[in-house]
Amino acid sequence: MIVREAKQERDYMTQQLLNLLWEGIQEEGQVMVGLRENENHSEPMHAYLDKNADDRMWLIMKKDNRVAKGGESIVQYIGKDHKLFASIAGELVEEEDQSMLDMFWSNAAEAWFDEGIDDPKLHFMRLDLKSAEIWNKNPTFTGALKMSTGSKVDPEDAGDHTLVEFKKRAQ
Fold first, then answer.
1. Cα distances (Å, whole numbers) of residue 12 to 18, 30, 139
2. How far is CA 24 from CA 44, 62, 83, in A?
3. What φ, ψ does residue 154 adopt, rounded to 5°?
4. Of 34, 100, 112, 146, which residue has the fewest beta carbons closer than 10 angstroms?
5. Quick one: DSSP state of residue 116?
6. What is the pLDDT of residue 78?
7. Beta-bridge mates of residue 124
8. What tens digit of pLDDT does each residue of 92-144 get?
9. How far apart are CA 31 and CA 87, in angstroms?
10. Whose CA is closest to 92, among 109, 108, 63, 69?
11. Ramachandran angles phi, psi of 104, nearest 5°
12. pTM tops 0.85
């Protein structure tokens, strides 16, 4: 079942799936990031989240990274238990708020930059989210039984699925 956000309030299932997604990314951090405009493959990166901004994520990279020029982007996420999947679309832009970089900076980030947070090769980007499609492989008893016997599984018996549209922030 696909649920489209029609009002400011999200339905319960959609909010639960979003919570699972944000918790997974917060805990694991690893996503695949790619630009929509070219045929370059996506690459693994660490995504950073701010609990006060559920419509954005941040990436720390080098200026010569294949996605550093920004633009329309797709982020893919697979949970460590391979039950939660997400495809996130947004606009990748340079983040100019130094306080955000300071908040996310860590020893793990520093390991990539010879001159630390002041490295001239450092490029800090923000993904302004437009939409996220989320699947949670959580089959019903009937779905699990059908899968185990090779019978046709109805989508509603395979797990939850939602499409979230994020509202554009006022500049």
1. 10, 26, 18
2. 15, 25, 11
3. -75, 140
4. 112
5. G
6. 96
7. 60
8. 999 999 999 999 999 999 999 999 999 999 999 999 999 999 998 875 566 56
9. 10
10. 69
11. -90, -15
12. no
